[in-house]
Amino acid sequence: MASRTSLEIDCLSAADQLSHFHQVGRPGRWGLDCLELAAHVRADGAIEDGAVALVFIERSCGSSIAGIPLNDNVVISLPPGSEIRASMRAGTIYRGIVVPVTDWLDIQHQTVGFVTSDTPKPSMFSLNGNQGSALIKETSLLGDRLEAALIPDTSDAAAQQRLPLPISDCLAHLADIQAHTESRYEAVNKSVDARLRQALRAKDFILAHLTEDLSVDRLCGAVGVSRRQLEYAFRTTFDCSPYDFIQSVRLNEIRRQLQRADGRTVTQIALDNGVQHLGRFSAAYRNLFGELPKETARQNLTALARHYKAGYRKG
Questions:
Q1: Domains present along the chain, CATH in parentheses
Q2: What angle do CA 98, 99, 101 make, to 5 degrees?
Q3: Are 176 and 227 in contact (CB under 8 A)?
């Protein structure tokens, strides 16, 4: 399995085809495994103390983990020190995320207002059809999104310690699903003063940290509210989600800078404003403004050229 676990694997059957395995992570910090298995294998190992594993089972094929028989569309939680003892059969598809348990507990609290899973033993909860479909879509893209979001080794220790945004968002999604499954949620504070104060404080934080990797969970921590409370504050104040607000503020600032033509390239301006994935940035920019970033920059250069040409003629 991923970083912060150790496994000894034995193959118990021949495979008719190759298994597909995708692993990405930061050693000693977090990790992701995506596996489509083509053979029957047995795995023995344990989750490292201080870490937790959350494993989404898309297809189970009669497999088991930690003595728990698996079904399709379930999430199994393996707390620190858990023995894995897995019997995984051909055809099994799963994605496993391993993170520090403190980060998982923080994300739960920020998302739903309380900790939903504090059991010291492995546990499992089932997803309905819509939840399973949404999680399949999100986790199938997670490996590629993480590789695009990986921060190179730098002297910025704080940046190295933060979970990547795709991991944080996926874990927040899991915490939200689990809270719905257990019919538990912290009540939302619907006070007009409270939600306005929360939304404006979050807005100020966004503007002050726009050049950084901003996640909704980080925003929740800065404001001191749950993800659900912040969603309510933004929906009722700005008529959009916190994520959409961050994106629109960032895109509008990039547009203003592109229109100034200060000599930087489109890529430089995007990276200077906290963009992590240039392809998704261009698509989002076009959706909002009806043109690509390079078209905005080109139009501004054309306008400047006309201005200087007109000035030269007058001179």
A1: 5-186 (2.60.120), 242-314 (1.10.10.60)
A2: 120
A3: yes
Q: Across the strands, what pairs with 5?
A: 47
d(CA 167, CA 172): 9
Burial of 183 (0-12, 13-18, 19+ CB in 10 A): exposed
At residue 69, the 3 state secondary structure works out as: strand
The answer to whether 6 and 45 have CB atoms below 8 angstroms apart is yes
Distance CA 141, CA 136 (A): 9
Cβ(172)–Cβ(89) below 8 Å: no
For the chain, the residue count is 315
What's the pLDDT tens digit per position in 250-263? 999 999 999 887 88
> What residues pair up with 7 in beta bridges, in sequence order?
45
* CA-closest candidate to residue 126, choices 61, 169, 174: 174
Predicted pLDDT at 28 = 84
Q: What is the pTM of this model?
A: 0.66
